[in-house]
Structure formats: C-alpha cells, structure tokens
Amino acid sequence: xxxxxxxxxxxxxxxxxxxxxxxxxxxxxxxxxxxxxxxxxxxxxxxxxxxxxxxxxxxxxxxxxxxxxxxxxxxxxxxxxxxxxxxxxxxxxxxxxxxxxxxxxxxxxxxxxxxxxxxxxxxxxxxxxxxxxxxxxxxxxxxxxxxxxxxxxxxxxxxxxxxxxxxxxxxxxxxxxxxxxxxxxxxxxxxxxxxxxxxxxxxxxxxxxxxxxxxxxxxxxxxxxxxxxxxxxxxxxxxxxxxxxxxxxxxxxxxxxxxxxxxxxxxxxxxxxxxxxxxxxxxxxxxxxxxxxxxxxxxxxxxxxxxxxxxxxxxxxxxxxxxxxxxxxxxxxxxxxxxxxxxxxxxxxxxxxxxxxxxxxxxxxxxxxxxxxxxxxxxxxxxxxxxxxxxxxxxxxxxxxxxxxxxxxxxxxxxxxxxxxxxxx
Length: 425
Prior knowledge:
Blueprint: H1 2-25, H2 30-62, H3 67-88, H4 91-96, H5 98-114, E1 118-121, E2 124-129, E3 134-135, H6 137-155, H7 163-167, H8 170-184, H9 188-205, H10 209-228, H11 231-241, H12 251-254, H13 259-271, H14 296-329, H15 333-358, H16 375-393, H17 398-424
Antiparallel strand pairs: 1-2, 2-3
Helix pairs in contact: 2-3, 2-14, 2-16, 3-16, 5-6, 5-8, 6-8, 6-9, 6-15, 6-16, 8-9, 9-15, 13-14, 14-15, 15-16
C-alpha cells in the first residue's frame, strides 16, 4: 500500500528534476557555467591533493610541509588571472595571436634544446631554467599549435580536400618543428599529446580519413624507433608487458624501474573503495616518487579510494561534455577546431597519465591536467580553459543571459527582503 502511494509522487519528482535539468542545459549560458565549474573543481581538487601528496617531499627538501603547495598556490593564482583575462578577450584576438604564440614557443624550445638554459631529469630535457623560475615551453607549444592550426584550417576550409593544402603550413612545418624539438629533448609523452591534438584538429576540420591511416603507420614507426633507441623506454615497455619480472629477488628492477608502477598499484590497492583518509597516504613517504606530480592520481586513489578516483574521472567527463557542447553549438569554424584541439589535448593527456598509474599503459611521464603539481602545465591549461570560456560567452544568447544574472539576483534579494519584512511585522 505504501509503495503504491509513494511511487507516483517519486515519479513526479523525478520528472520535475529531469525537466529542470533539461531547462538548465538548454540555457545559452549552460556551456559557460559548466566549463567554469568543472575547471574550478579540478583546480581545487589539485590544490588539496598537491598539499597532501607533497608534504613529505617538502619536509625532506625544505623543512616545511607547505613548500610545494605554496608554489602551486601561486601558480593557481597566476592561472586564475590568466583565465579571467582570457575569458574577456575578443574573438579577434584569439584568431590573430596563433602565429606569434607559435614563434615564441618555438624560440623558447630552441633555447631548451640548444643552450645551457635547458635542463631536465630522467633523460628528458624539457625545462628552461631562467634562474628566478623555470618553465616548460612545450606546454605553451600545445596552446600555440591549437590557435595557429585553428586559424589556418579555418582559412583553408574550402580546400582541405587537397592533401597539400591540408598539410601546409599547419602540419608541415609548424607541428613538425614543434614535435622534432620536443623529441630531441626526449619528451615522448608530450610529443604523443601534441600529435594527438594535431590529429584531432585535422579530423574535426574534415580532412580525408585515408590520410590518417598513412599518418598512423608513420606515427607507429616513429614511436617504435623512439622506443628502440632508448633503454629506459624499452625497460618500461618490458615491465608493462611482463609485470612478473618485478619481483623482490630482481633487486635492480624491483627498486629501480619497477618502483613507480609497483607502488602506484600498492597505493590504489590500499585505498580500496573509500580510501584510507585525506593526508593518510603511506606511499608518499618516499616510497612512490613524484607523488604530487605524475603519480598524484595514485595518491587520490589511496587517500580517497575508488570513489575519489571516479569523481576525478567524472570531472574530466564533464569537461569533455562541456567542450563538445561548445563544438556542436558554434557556427564559427575557428572556434570549433580550437575547442576540439583543447579537448583532445586535455583528455589524451589525462588518459596517458591515469593509464600509466593504473597499469593499462606504460609509464610515459605526463602530468594530470589541472591537478598535478607544476606551474607551466597548470597556467597553460587554465589559460586554455579561459579561451574556451571566451568562446562560450560568444555563443548566441550567452552574453545576454550573463548580463541578466546580476539583475535576477538583485530581484530575488528584493523579494526575500519584502517577505522578511512581512514576516516580522
């Protein structure tokens, strides 16, 4: 009797909730608010987890548990400034800046590769040491290629059926130069992300599919060559394909190249479903290297469990959905291609990072976007998010909806004030 009486009511409530959700998503400002909210949440999760994951590293290096976190907080503030400025810039700015940004990125990457200012670790030479700070020009290169490629492909929209027109100058020489400089620095992970975003933009622009097959064969050959010429990469591939070799009796492997994947899996196993508690990680006590950077997802899984890990995955899924909305709702070809470039960049990088942590991919070494410690990655991805917000503001009806928001809030406050006065009287 009770179930029969409650079922219709719950059904009505569900239909109302569904209708309200549809109404919100149909709003011209929905894409803008989704992008803003998911970016804020990912950066917030990143700050909390960087603080938790880096405390032991900071104590060891600087005698204070907040050293890495303070740096990341500064980068987040700078990224917020970049995001706010970017979201206010006109569309004409984004369409003009691509070429200049690409020249700057290539120049900085040349300094990394061919001058003493270039530094790195783990066999990778991908940082520019400016004495007062350091930066990773390849991160700027990703955004520069997105902007340059979107402008070129938009200008050549009518002739992309011609192979030469589709390739020049976006793929050759622009993307090829950036990829070559990154690979000279032995940063295979970043090169894979760049190659993916270039391919994604070409696909979204409507380049013929048969060309992707030929490019894919060439890409696999280059990847195999890069792997075979590096003993470190060969070792990572070997332990990924044959994890049984990572046994305590093989001390050189167990405490060497096997250390990161093993302790990442230990962290995830310890976390279980609900986690062992925020700040309670055991693996960050010098067992798992780079716990606040490339392996921060392992610390999330250990401290917040499967639930916390799924929440992070859900946030990236929302980011993908919001960006896809932007792609399908715009009539501007430049916006469509640039948005696809950013979406592929963020998602592929997240897939590579998370895949390495959970063991479905070999360890390649890229940060988790918005979450991992690192100023260049955080500021650049927040700048890219600001650009997407600028695109979302340009959607038909969005600016008007945002302009009405303050007056709506004021009206609501006035109604509440009148109601409160009537109640007191």
